[in-house]
Amino acid sequence: xxxxxxxxxxxxxxxxGTRLFPATKVVKKELFPIIDENGRAKPIILAIVExxxxxxxxxxxxxxxxDDVGVFADLFKNPPTSxxxxxxxxxxxxxxxxxxELGKKVVLLTQEEQEGYGHAVFCAKDWVGNEPFxxxxxxxxxxxxxxKSCAQQIVELYAQLNQNVVSLTIMPAAIIHKAGCVTGxxxxxxxxxxxxxxxxxxxxxxxxxxxxxxxMAEDEFLCIFGLYVLTPKIFDYLGESIAExxxxxxxxxxxxxxxxxxxxxxxxxxxIKGQYFDTxxxxxxxxxxxxxx
Length: 293
Prior knowledge:
Blueprint lengths: L7 E5 L20 E3 L5 E3 H11 L4 E6 L4 H8 L5 H6 L2 H14 L2 E5 L6 H6 L2 H4 L4 E4 L3 E5 L5 H12 L2 E9 L7 E9 L3 E9 L3 H7 L9 E11 L2 H11 L11 H11 L1 E5 L2 E5 L3 H10 L2
Parallel strand pairs: 1-4, 1-6, 4-5, 8-12
Antiparallel strand pairs: 2-3, 6-11, 7-13, 8-11, 9-10, 9-11, 10-12
């Protein structure tokens, strides 16, 4: 069977960032700075785009609010003013040129109304077209534990299996109510899982009864790491959810549609050899600033 290469990545970045208010009243959370391993301060969204490119992605669609197109375009599309350019170090001048080249691969998509994560993904439907795509969270950055980036690991697994792939990490029971959680059967122990169910932010009691995975500690569960490679079939389920006004806590979510996709096409779970850093909360953002470099 012919396998379509994964060429496109989608990054939803159209939320309000309410958990980081009041800073997000003036700066989008995706534009908050982090410090990379080279000591360079960069907006979070830039680190995510570079992660996508590391996996061989050639086009990156960032879903933003209409009023925010200008600020994202300024980052990725517009060169520094001549005055600023002259004041940059040679290293930063070189990086500025890299940023302009990167910007040629970035497309800005819009979400007219903020109706949830699943709705933001659906806004990329026409741009993605009929091909698989890499989906990335707009407030997570990643650090691989091996010589392949986290995004590259999951894209290469899709190429091997020709099936939807969701990245996984281990979480303690105390925090699984904040994440999508899965269960299934190991195909390769502690690495590749045939997923049988995906649950959005389950209670501990529900997880203990329904989401156990063989070999896991009693109060540890497999949760979504924040990287996905999905076929365009996901848009069918997202479209149905929106048409039927099927919401979770007032918003259109991705996880319910992922579970439908799992039943229809199958989804493989992959325990990423790496670490994610959540920048969407004050305390986790603070810890990211300490640990990411």
